[in-house]
Each structure stands twice: as C-alpha cells, then as structure tokens.
Amino acid sequence: MKNTDLIMGFQYYRAPTPDKTEWAKDLERIASDGYNTVKYWIQWRWNEPEEGKFYFDDIDELMDLAEKNGLKVVLNIILDVSPVWLIKDYPESAMITANGVRAEGFATEYRQIGGVPGPCFNWEKGDLLKKRFISECVKRYALHPALLMWDVWNEPELSVGIYRDPQPETLLCYCDNCKKAFGKYLKEKYCHIDKLNGVWGRNYSDFSVAEPPKRRGTTADMIDWREFFCDVITRDFAKRVDCVKKYDKVHPVMCHTVPIPLFNSISCCSDDFSIAKYGDLVGNSVGSNPLAADMMKSVANGKRIINSEIHACYGSSLNGFRLPDTNDMIKHIFIPMAHGSKGFLFWQYRPEVIGNEAPAWGMVGLKGEETERNELLKSIYAEIEDKADIVENFVPASGEIAVYHDKANEIYCWEASFSTDLYVNSLTGAYEMFYKNNYAVDFISPDGLYEDIKKYKCVYFPSTFLFDEDKANAVFDYASAGGTVIIEALFGIENEKTGRHCYSIPGCGVAEKLGIKTENFYSSTMIENGYDGKVFTKAAGDKVPFFAQNRLLSGAKYLVKTSLGGEEVLAKFESGSPGVISYKVGEGRFIVVNTLLSYGFKKYGGEDELSFIREIVGEPKSSARAKSELGLRFDFIEEGGRGFIVLDNSTDSDKRIITDAVASKILGNCEKTEDGFTVKAKGAAVIILG
After folding, report:
1. Which residues are 287's β-sheet partners?
2. Average of per-residue pLDDT values in the chain
3. Which of 233, 445, 658, 673 sits between 20 and 30 A of 55, alpha carbons compared?
4. Quick count: other Cβ atoms within 10 Å of Cβ 477?
5. What pLDDT band is residue 322 in, cutting at 50, 70 and 90?
6. How far apart, in Å, are the Cα atoms of 465 and each of 228, 251, 405?
7. d(CA 11, CA 56)
8. Distance of CA 359 to CAs 17, 46, 288, 547, Å?
C-alpha cells in the first residue's frame, strides 16, 4: 500500500462486468490516481459453474494485475447466488415463504447472474457445499501477495432483498429443515417444554411440534421465530470465518453489514451486535449515515471498522443517478471517519452496463473517462494521506450517551403495530436528539445493560415496550449509582420472559419502584381526533404536543395520564397532566416521558427538543473544545494542531460554531467568521488544520 494502512479505493469486479478489455488500464489508473485498494467478488454461481469444477481464470488475472500495480485486494466471497446445478440437482435446497412460495433462482438488479437468494441456511448439504467453495477460494489465494483481507459476506440478509419488506406471508423460511432446527433452538432456549408453553400460551407435548407463526398477533412465538433466524445468520457467518482461517491464518476476515434502519430484524435477520463478535474487522454499507457509523462503532468493541460500500453515485437505468458534490463526499468520508472508520471503499469504480443499476454507481464515466467526482475524491484522499497518522491514531469519544437497541423489541414493535415505522423512527429520533446536540452517542444492547451501561451518563430507551424485571433491576442499579435513565410511554408493558402484558404502566416493576399511578393512556390510532376532550382537544394525527416552560415539544402516538408524583414535573400536556416527570433514584434519576418524544422529534421536532434534552442531561463533553448553535454537529480528528474538524449541519438554517482553531483550508459549505465558522443550511464541511 502507499504511505498509509488506511484503505481508500473501490469495489471493482462483479462478474460479468467490467469487461476484461478494461481491467489492465483501469487498475493501472486506479493506482496512478493514488488509491490503494480494490475489491473483487468471487461468486459461487460464476466461479463453480459445474459441481466440483471451479473457474478462477478471471480472479487469477485480476489478482496479478493488482499486484503489478501495487494495489491490495479485498476478496468478497458471494454465496447467495446458487449455481444452476444446485437448483437443478438439489430442489430441497430452496427456502420457502410462509405462504408456500419457493424462493429460488432469481436474477435481480444486484445479483444479475441469478441464483438469489441462495440455499436454505438450515439445509445441511448446503453447509458442506458452501464450505467446499470457500476452501477452494482460500487455498488458491491465501499466499497471493496482492491479498489484503477476506470479506466473506456482502450484506448478511436472509432474503437478499427479494422479500425485504417484512410481511407475514413472505417471511422466510418455512421448509422442514428450518422447522426442525427451530425446535432444537427452542429446546436450547427453554430447556423444558412447560416453560415454552407458559411463555407462548400453548400445550405442546414436545419442542418438535412447536409451530412457526404465520401471522402477527401472538408476540412471543414471532419474536422467537425471527430471533432464531438472527441466530442462524450469525452462526453461518461464524462458520465462514472458521472455514477461511483453517487455510489462511494470516489475512483478516470480515463481513460488511447494513445496519438498521435500512435492514431490519424481521425479514433481514441481521444482528450487528452478534455478527461483530466474529471476524477480525467490522465492515458496513451505508456507513456515511451518522447513525450507521455510530452503530458500527458500538458493535465493533475496539475492532477496526471499514466503510466497505459507499453509495455515492446511486441511481438506476431510467431514473438517472446522483452526482456527488463536496458536501456529499464529506458525508461519505469524514463523518464515518469521525466515528471510527479506518477505510473507505466506494461502490464502485466503473459503472456497470448490465441490469437496472446501470449506468449509475461509477466514480468514473461509462467509458472510464475522468469525472469531477473522481477528481474531487482524489483531492480529498490526498488531504487524508497527508494526515494519515492522525486518522490512524484517532479514537472517537465515547462514554456519554447510550441509546438502547434491542432486536426483540424491534420485532415486537413490528408485530404489534403492523409496521417497522414505529421502531425505526423512534430509534433514529432518539439518536438524532443527541447527535445534533454534540454528545458522543453509542448504542447499547440488552447484554450491555449489565456492565457496559456503567460508563454512560445517560441511557435513553426509545419506544421500549418489551422488557423484563432483570433488565429493569440492572437499569435501577445504574440509576442508583448516579446515571440518568430516560424512558417513554408504555415502557416495558410486555414482559419478554413471561410472554404476558404487564398489569402496571410502566411495566416490569418500574411503576411500583417509582410509585407511578397511571390513570389511563390514549392512542392516536384509537380515537378519530386523537384523544378525548379532557386530555387533548386538537386533531393532529399522531402528533402529541406538550410544553416545557416556553418550549413547544413534539411527542407522538401516545399520551399516558399519570397522577402527580416524582421529584419534579419537567413538562406538561395541554390539559395540565404531567408530560415529563423526574424521579430521584439513589444518586441518579429516572426521567419518565408520557409520550413518544423520540418518534415525535424525528417526525416533527426541532431546536426546542434539542435544548430540552440538553437541559436534562447537561452540557456535552465537546463543549470544552468548541461551542455551536443547536443542530450543528462538530467532531475533532486532531492532534497537536493538525487534523480535521468535521461539521454537519442537518438543519434548514445556517449555523455557527465558535472555535479558535486555525484553518489551513476549508472544504464544503462553510465560511470563516471572526470567532469561528458558519456552515450553510443542510451543509457539511471540513476544516483542515495544520
């Protein structure tokens, strides 16, 4: 590699494109432009066209060309394209939807050669066939001098996009192999059939007869059914890692995921927290989104992070494609860098010319000609390479705010609300309230509530309807030791361990511990004008306004009416009913929000909610380095006066940051002022220091 271990390059080859006639000149030019890495797909269907007969001529030539030009290679092994012979000779390999459709042999815009979605993950013969293919790949290229690392799964997902929208009738997989494996999973989880019967409300005689659910409405069985497939995906990745390491103990192994909110735990079944435990690095697509970047920082737990698939020039055949400008490039590179990414691979170098994704996605033109976007990317990379030591040593701030993310609660929200909208908007809304306030934000999983939680000053629980007493006790211990807990309406009303709705609101013992008396709760979906006249008189869809001093705050979906209690009422609804109450717990606090503030902020909120949150939680640590107007995010990647300040203004107005940092150069929608800088509305910028 050039002068740095930072990865900067492109996805290059997904057979059958680019054409072989382009390879030599493209790879020579990629290297001469200053980039250092390319990624090639090795596809099961393409590279094992007959069972047991392998074709690697294309990859051989491409690997040698990379070595010739001083480029390093990420080899991405693609197993979700079943070979023609597999579909023909092993019909039992197909996954089956809930309504009985065989999912086999699709060609899609992102797997143009066909074979999607690959064989069922619980078909035992499939394990052997996949391992054989991985082994052939690794034995062939483990000693090649151009090899940098193995990426053994491109965007782990159960259906590879064909059934991504979670609908009960198209969920996968209901084949006999999956039903049998599900019974074993349940036995491992519950141990005794009486325990399963108690949680599910059934009278099964044995785990082997437990029925996978085919519609929503019973909650506990659906959560187990989808968590089972999250476990299946994770285990399959672990098997791939083990298979590579059997033949190559030198090169690192990874996969790259698509974090929530784009992939869900219902149909995609990709659990970043579990997957990140395996492999040597953590990779992701769409890491340009701050939430995705912080999700990967959280799950990586110190492992190196690669932004493996940057979607800069997205589009399709008849709809055109996005031409990224400086603003976009800052978001694609510097924002994930500010949250820990040490590598950047763009999808992709040359536009493809086959399928509906053509002719988008390329950093150069259709004929390989130079473009303004590639010139821009080269100039940005030159700035990064000049300060590569700063970037390499940079560790993102942590330990301020944790936002709770639980795949079981995500599944519950979908199951109960018939949509992913509730959970996704709540999770992203909670994250953005803190991100835009300049707090260092992590995501915390259920397992993290017992140890990891101790390092945070505040933990926020967005739309957390599913919980249990053990978790609640851990959260109370955290508050007693000085932490701040923020919960929302209907917190913990479903007990995950018992499969039962709780008798009190908030549930799982929280109401009793805090002394909360809930009189009633109102849902915007139940009454045409929102709520009855005694509580809320204005028809406003799912918006629930409430007030804190002179601030108008946006809640949503629910209004919980509680009697007065707690240490202090921080906000009220129009009727005077308490909207936010602070309860003293040991050395810390429980903040109870009687509506969904996170969802309301995502859909309707602004600076009032940001200032309200800052008043509750206190000044962020970043205030010691600079001060900015609400809504303008800043991150320092800096040491000894050298490095970068990354600015992200997602608001509709210009925003100002006050800092004495001296800029040697400014990239993006930003202007120097007397005491700092001003970033234009919806703008991003980088202040280059030293």
Report:
1. none
2. 95
3. 233
4. 17
5. confident
6. 20, 43, 12
7. 18
8. 12, 22, 22, 51
